[in-house]
């Protein structure tokens, strides 16, 4: 239903002349993920856009939010530490949109949704979410806050309505304030990859009360109702983001990076990608199919093809140095047999010091 409403809104926007004049990709998607660690300056962004355009990519997934900080002039979140934690003298998202459209590329703002901070050391900025809103973060069934872990994330609590409203408002800044062609959701799930299995998140009193109001019982670790309810809260967040886009700019494409196989609400990360695709809550899914085994890779591609999703499926392929050209040739072939759309992870592997773009990009050609 969301998807249908979005197209109605788009037609109305076209009639009123309110739609972005940015390019749209109507043929096969040739996308690439560009991480927030790949650029520091305006010159870096313009070089990245030129390199990817010259290589034949038509869609850039450009990361502008990693852990509760911004790579745009935000009124809600502080500047990213990767930019020194202050205004760098330019707006990275604005520069990226302008440069991409000048080269006839689509620019999708890539955002990590649930993570609020990364690493073992807490942020020094008191305005950063980890410091400003401790009540929005996970606590376990013992009342302990999710620990900071070197090299990984701590999470916001998507079960809280106020957290969902806040995140929608953050993404509204991007959609309403910039001529982006898309909003790309990553880590729109429970980020508990490194948590000990005996810990159960989130068990703060407010979350427990919300669950009790819905089920008439307290959460029970491992139970189906508790798992499903948490998955449903993540889906409620995705729906709210989709509805915001309908209201603000229905031409913007909403996509999500999802698991390598279709998932349900009770799967490990409570990311119900099957529902999002079947109900059209998003316009495209990007399965992160990062297996180095071509047989397993092909099996995962087939699982998405069998789903019969009404939305675009863009297969994510890892092109790191541990993948030989022979393996990637098999994986590209398996992906393109099922769908013409692919996205490569990541820019640094193709265009860095030991870049492989000249070797690998030709493998994507028909």
Describe what this molecule looks like in 3D.
By secondary structure, the chain is an alpha/beta fold. The protein has a single domain, classed as TIM Barrel. It contains 12 helices and 11 strands. The strands form 2 sheets. An 8-stranded parallel beta barrel has the order 1-2-3-6-7-8-10-11, surrounded by 4 helices. A two-stranded antiparallel sheet has the order 4-5. Helix 1 packs parallel to helix 7, helix 5 runs parallel beside helix 7 and helix 9 packs parallel to helix 10. The N terminus is likely disordered.
What's the helix count? 12
Amino-to-carboxy terminus distance: 35 Å
> Can you tell me the CATH superfamily?
Glycosidases
The major β-sheet equals: 8 strands, parallel, barrel
- Lateral arrangement of strands in the main beta sheet: 1-2-3-6-7-8-10-11
Structural class: alpha/beta
What order do the SSEs take from the amino end to the carboxyl end, as H and E? HEHEHEEHEHEHHEHEHEEHEHH
Average pLDDT over all residues: 93
The CATH topology corresponds to TIM Barrel
CATH class descriptor? Alpha Beta
Overall geometry: globular
